[in-house]
What we know:
The structure holds three protein chains of three kinds.
Chain A: H1 10-35, H2 44-67, H3 86-109, H4 114-139, H5 151-168, H6 178-199, H7 205-229, H8 237-259
Helix pairs in contact in A: 1-2, 1-4, 1-5, 1-8, 2-3, 3-4, 4-5, 5-6, 5-8, 6-7, 6-8, 7-8
Chain B: H1 13-31, H2 40-43, E1 56-62, E2 73-79, E3 82-88, H3 105-108, H4 111-114, E4 124-126, E5 135-137, H5 140-157, E6 163-164, H6 179-187, E7 193-195, H7 201-211, E8 228-232, H8 236-239, H9 245-254, E9 258-262, H10 268-273, E10 276-278, H11 285-298, H12 304-310, E11 311-312, H13 329-334, H14 344-351, H15 355-367, E12 371-375, H16 385-398, E13 435-437, H17 441-447, E14 469-473, H18 477-481, H19 485-493, E15 500-505, H20 510-513, E16 517-520, E17 529-532, E18 539-543, H21 556-567, H22 570-573, H23 580-591, H24 603-609, E19 613-615, H25 626-630, E20 644-645, H26 649-653, E21 683-686, H27 702-707, E22 712-714, H28 716-721, E23 729-734, E24 737-745, E25 753-755, E26 796-801
Chain C: E1 4-9, H1 18-27, E2 37-43, E3 47-49, E4 52-55, E5 58-64, H2 73-77, E6 83-85, E7 91-93, H3 103-107, E8 114-116, E9 121-123, H4 129-132, H5 139-143, E10 149-153, H6 154-161, E11 180-183, H7 190-193, E12 196-199
Parallel strand pairs in C: 1-11
Antiparallel strand pairs in C: 1-10, 2-5, 2-12, 3-4, 6-7, 8-9
Amino acid sequence: xxxxxxxxxxxxxxxxxxxxxxxxxxxxxxxxxxxxxxxxxxxxxxxxxxxxxxxxxxxxxxxxxxxxxxxxxxxxxxxxxxxxxxxxxxxxxxxxxxxxxxxxxxxxxxxxxxxxxxxxxxxxxxxxxxxxxxxxxxxxxxxxxxxxxxxxxxxxxxxxxxxxxxxxxxxxxxxxxxxxxxxxxxxxxxxxxxxxxxxxxxxxxxxxxxxxxxxxxxxxxxxxxxxxxxxxxxxxxxxxxxxxxxxxxxxxxxxxxxxxxxxxxxx
Amino acid sequence: xxxxxxxxxxxxxxxxxxxxxxxxxxxxxxxxxxxxxxxxxxxxxxxxxxxxxxxxxxxxxxxxxxxxxxxxxxxxxxxxxxxxxxxxxxxxxxxxxxxxxxxxxxxxxxxxxxxxxxxxxxxxxxxxxxxxxxxxxxxxxxxxxxxxxxxxxxxxxxxxxxxxxxxxxxxxxxxxxxxxxxxxxxxxxxxxxxxxxxxxxxxxxxxxxxxxxxxxxxxxxxxxxxxxxxxxxxxxxxxxxxxxxxxxxxxxxxxxxxxxxxxxxxxxxxxxxxxxxxxxxxxxxxxxxxxxxxxxxxxxxxxxxxxxxxxxxxxxxxxxxxxxxxxxxxxxxxxxxxxxxxxxxxxxxxxxxxxxxxxxxxxxxxxxxxxxxxxxxxxxxxxxxxxxxxxxxxxxxxxxxxxxxxxxxxxxxxxxxxxxxxxxxxxxxxxxxxxxxxxxxxxxxxxxxxxxxxxxxxxxxxxxxxxxxxxxxxxxxxxxxxxxxxxxxxxxxxxxxxxxxxxxxxxxxxxxxxxxxxxxxxxxxxxxxxxxxxxxxxxxxxxxxxxxxxxxxxxxxxxxxxxxxxxxxxxxxxxxxxxxxxxxxxxxxxxxxxxxxxxxxxxxxxxxxxxxxxxxxxxxxxxxxxxxxxxxxxxxxxxxxxxxxxxxxxxxxxxxxxxxxxxxxxxxxxxxxxxxxxxxxxxxxxxxxxxxxxxxxxxxxxxxxxxxxxxxxxxxxxxxxxxxxxxxxxxxxxxxxxxxxxxxxxxxxxxxxxxxxxxxxxxxxxxxxxxxxxxxxxxxxxxxxxxxxxxxxxxxxxxxxxxx
Amino acid sequence: xxxxxxxxxxxxxxxxxxxxxxxxxxxxxxxxxxxxxxxxxxxxxxxxxxxxxxxxxxxxxxxxxxxxxxxxxxxxxxxxxxxxxxxxxxxxxxxxxxxxxxxxxxxxxxxxxxxxxxxxxxxxxxxxxxxxxxxxxxxxxxxxxxxxxxxxxxxxxxxxxxxxxxxxxxxxxxxxxxxxxxxxxxxxxxxxxxxxxxxxxxxx
Lengths: 267, 804, 204
């Protein structure tokens, strides 16, 4: 069958996956950068607000996910099949991850014990990784050959890095590590765009528009990164906010391309 | 864990409340007796488990008899006055002597027609101009009064022959259908009669010129004895030319028969049943048949003994008296007189079938005996359909495939041995003797009084009247099924021509849109009836009343009976007060049991047993013409020579050799790819009988149209040349009209031909272009030379992408 | 636990969709939801030489519902265990647990689970469990005018008809182990050599 349209209702999954990956990428990168000492995160407000931001992104993601369900009120049953269902496992990791993010948030406000915070941090990194792995597992089905290859987890990881890094760059404290982060961002945007181009399967005119949009947005982002890196544009918060928005749109476009690849190998 | 995961909770809060909500909304829907709401409640999907209120009954009955050719058994589940499920024949055995009568999608999807929200509920009177479709509700009393007034008025002013009850095949259950109306008119002085049909006009007239009868068909159980079957333009798997005809062919194949489908389309039958599919240019069948005859004759594969004993006109040794020196069949085939030998090479240029294939088929047909050449009716529904019929019969004759088990005489193919068939409702004798060819009713409106034998008038030299009143019952012929809709619509809009039109139907069909008075009839599930095999079959169905007629609908019989009261002929019409059930009883006990089925149980027994059908198993199939073949002197045919006429003197005497040759000839159609018209209109259009419908019945059936929506089928080559892609809307037009429909590009139709399945409901958009996809926007009102029949597949058109 | 299977005789299937409609009637399926679907496969080219056709296209039909796989992907994928194998060996959906996420539809290589927008859950062929437990055939099988469908336990069906062929466009049976035996149409090998199109109820 030659369906080249995205299924109706998949837009919610597009948003869910991008936002979830953004939250995961942001959290993991933030924790890694804190613990490798690249940034000294003594700014309490920044810590709390970044945890809160992660939490809000997760909430929005969960809401959009509920919209694509027929009976969202039955959602509690989704943990019934951890034994064999990647979707079950993903929901499991989403819950664990959300709990940990919330715990980090509480720890940052009330507790000052570093070890507790460290434990939550490590647990969060593990949970986040598990989340990305499960999410990839969902889509790597035998029946959808265009999803059943390395480009799926690669794309998810790259989305996480792209959106996570650009969110990280919004943290004022990250000034010291900017060049390194921009370098990482540059590579991630490049590979993410290439991934989208590689998975693009030919279809009707509308899809080419999507690919063009994806490419243009990625190019704009790359050029902005270069310009910021060489200080041609000032490395200010509004600029980084615009960059974040461009990147989010770009990743959403890329994810839509991903979802239009839902053509069954059989029927 | 935060939650305990009971995996299958039985009584959760949400579960019970949600079900209760749906139940109430269904009830609320059914209790709203407003204009459109009675059945909307029924369409809300409801959980089957909830149906445990009343008792469910299962009634076995015949599928509402439309003009599909099938007569199948349905098991109808009824509960609380509603039909809840429809299943089919499940009698054990399923042997070919008495196979299960399984219904097709039209029968299985019948609930969607039965409970369609658009069903007519009340009598309607026209407001505004005719054809605009504006109506207001009136009472039955008013409706009967209007009918009485109009009919009496026309009889008084013009005479009975100005009244016409047109051709209509919407129902064949005797009590539903046009026959009660005919019976009533016959008691009131009669009405203009007709002969022929839209299904098989050419073969109906042509077959008797060859065989002297229409009963040229063996019983179908005989097909398993055949070794070679040509399905020529025949698609039983889709239209259902008799229930199980496709299954019998399958059985024949299992018994060693090779099958060949010759058809411009790779039809469903070609896919399911053919070893070989041979695409042929529409309208050129007689050319291929002639070329086959050429091969058979020149390679000495003819059955000379049979020809000598049973045929007439084959060669100059057996020409009929008075025509000894005329062109014989052999002369034509070999080209001795016209200088054109009908070789396969000659036919190849005309038919687009390779000459090697033609020769091969000819040899196989002649040598793999016994062989069947089954002609479908599509190829005779054309400009020179009569010739195609006779050409096919000639092939059967020269190969001696007649009168033997496993053979087939071709022609119309009505089952030999045993009558009556079909509708047996006693309509009585028509005091008006004049009969028009059924296709010429629009002529009879505009110039009836000028029509005579040249137009095929029978029973009288000329007509006394133009048609002034039309009472259209169970028929969508007025606008939809008759040719050239634009022309017909113009004729009908003129109220000085036809002064009154009444349409009696289940729905507001396109024909009903042109009515002055619309009478709501009930469906066959809602009244008693009896149905019989179509042209084959040894079964009779009792169709009891299963549910009540909704709103103010009545059976066609009931409407006529009530009307007969106004005319003061109620006693005679109802034969002493019979209702529908009494008629069903009378038909079974007084007709069928006394003729074809003496062993059939009595009506009361049949009713009590809930068998739904009586079947006489066929263990020894009747072979048409077997007596004649064995002893042509003792059992002559009803032809002038008593033999199979390959040369027909009556046709010769008509002295129209170009259009009505005495021997079957290929005649180029008046609209063909070889004529001048092909410059402007290069594509041939045909309109096959489509699976989701029976002609125009079931056009509004949601389930069948989901499975098979109305489309224009085109070959990729033709589409690419016009930059049309799959799913685009296309406009199809010629000088007579235009339609717009969605296009399906398929490899299953030959280049140069498009297919617009017939029966779609006419729905004019702006500029008068039909948006429903009705092929009759393009067909011609010109009639065929001999049969005065409908050449509705002879059309040339152009197609382009439609952008609006 | 019996292993039920369908037999599909594609060599005599005319594509009439009576099986599809019989199922719709029994299960009250609204427009757009078909538990049984008839696929049309057509392909090949018209090759013309001097006004006659030297090569013709081909076409065949396959009727499919749920394959009642022995190792069902949908059951593995379903997060809530709504999709499960019941005591009669039939893969069924418990509507109380289903969340309508459509993951089973993604996982099924045959497109069997269908989302019902009115009930807001996934639905699919249940092999007419109420009929087969009474010894009757499923509605679709009993409806086929060409007698092209059959049903029984997998052992019965393979004993009667052999193991069938894997026909284009059915995917590699692979891990699912579908319980279906197909007798192929005479043209079933042609899609390998020529491009073929598969269509279902795609026009609406």
